[in-house]
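Service request form, structural biology core

Requester: graduate student, group of Dr. S.
Request type: structure prediction, single chain
Budget code: on file
Notes: please return the result as C-alpha cells.

Sequence provided:
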Amino acid sequence: MRVALSAVLGLAVVLVVAARVSAEDKEVTLKGTILCAKCELKETEKCTNAIRVKEDGKDVVYYFDDKGNKESYHKKICQKTADGSVTGTVSEKDGKKYIKPAKNGVKFD
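Core staff response, request fulfilled:
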C-alpha cells in the first residue's frame, strides 16, 4: 500500500512540474521599443538588448536572454531605440523579466 501511494504521489508531482514547464515554454510576441539597457536605460554595465512594452498602462522592460552586443541586431539599437517586436519564451528571475528570442524572432518596424 505504501509503495502504491508513493508511486501515485510521485507521478502527481511529475505531472505538475511538466505542466508548469510546458506553460512557461509558450512562445509569445512582444511589441514595443527595442533598446540597449546600458545606453538607453543606464541599468547594466555591459550592452544588453531589451524591449520596453506597455502592460496595463505601465512601461515594462524585458531583457533579452541572448549574446548582448554580439547579436547582429545590436548595432541598430546601441545608443538609439527602434520600434519592433520580439518573439520568444518569457521567464522571470530576481524580479526582472526576460525573453529568449526565437531564431529570427527580433524584427524591426
